[in-house]
């Protein structure tokens, strides 16, 4: 059996041994962990380069530092200003809300001569929590007063982290649009209200309103879909009997 001659690249071949120097500082045998600390000349060169970089870019670096400082200071000042504005808005809004709860809607909206009304709070303190809430109160007041366009404008400027309150705002926007004969827009807002944190207590009522608005828009397929949702998703709701009754009417109107 012939033997295959082995070369240096043949697997298993013995590699020639390199002589090991006894000097740990010999070239190729020692890599210092921190070369700058162990080589004073290299450290001096690096420091000189850093100083030169700072001299050449001093204005740029100072400008960047000034921007950062101004941004931090500006954010702090804005936060403090907004907090003070919110405090003023809440104080101004207190009497307006009292009139709103007493159903004195004109005074609630316009003020009484001594205290400002919801309109002023919403406009002058926009961006504050109190100003945001004033939009909701003003929207409801305008809706009750028959000022449907104004009501929609106020309610569109309102937003809330409270899921039920936000859903209610969408439903009120539906009411404001319905009163302006904007049936499709109204139906879309009712649908949004029904789907926003959907629940047994409020969603069936919103869906019933949506179905009515879609019927007025002659969107019978959309109305049937809303009625079906009440029947299938909320069978224990108070609205389910009305939904079954109105569904039959919508089917007749749609020719089904």
TrEMBL record:
Coiled coil: none annotated. InterPro entries: TPR-like_helical_dom_sf, TPR_rpt. Residues 1-20 have a biased composition (Polar residues). Pfam families: TPR_16 (PF13432), TPR_6 (PF13174). PROSITE patterns: TPR. TPR repeats lie at residues 167-200. It comes from the Bacteria. Keywords: Membrane, TPR repeat, Transmembrane, Transmembrane helix. Residues 1-31 are annotated as: Disordered. The chain crosses the membrane at residues 60-81. This is Tetratricopeptide repeat-containing protein. It comes from Hymenobacter psychrotolerans DSM 18569. The lineage of its organism: Bacteria, Pseudomonadati, Bacteroidota, Cytophagia, Cytophagales.
């Amino acid at each position: 059996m012939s033997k295959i001659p082995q070369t240096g690249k043949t697997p298993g071949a013995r590699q020639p041994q390199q002589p090991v120097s006894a000097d740990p500082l010999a070239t190729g045998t020692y890599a210092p962990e921190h070369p700058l600390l162990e080589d004073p000349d290299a450290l001096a060169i690096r420091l000189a380069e850093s100083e030169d970089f700072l001299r050449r870019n001093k204005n740029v670096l100072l400008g960047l530092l000034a921007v950062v400082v101004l941004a931090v200071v500006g954010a702090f000042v804005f936060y403090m200003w907004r907090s003070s504005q919110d405090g003023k808005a809440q104080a101004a809004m207190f009497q307006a809300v009292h009139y709103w709860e007493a159903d004195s809607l004109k005074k609630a909206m316009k003020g009484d001569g001594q205290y400002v009304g919801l309109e002023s709070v919403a406009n002058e303190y926009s961006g504050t929590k109190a100003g945001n809430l004033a939009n909701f109160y003003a929207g409801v007041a305008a809706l009750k007063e028959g000022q449907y366009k104004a009501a929609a404008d106020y309610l569109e400027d309102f937003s809330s982290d409270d899921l039920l309150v936000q859903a209610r705002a969408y439903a009120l926007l539906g009411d404001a649009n319905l009163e302006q004969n904007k049936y499709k827009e109204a139906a879309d807002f009712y649908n949004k209200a029904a789907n926003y944190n959907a629940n047994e207590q409020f969603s069936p009522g919103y869906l019933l309103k949506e179905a009515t608005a879609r019927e007025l828009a002659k969107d019978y397929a959309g109305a049937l879909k809303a009625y079906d949702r009440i029947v299938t998703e909320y069978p224990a709701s108070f609205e389910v009997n009305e939904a079954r009754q109105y569904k039959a009417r919508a089917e007749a109107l749609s020719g089904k």
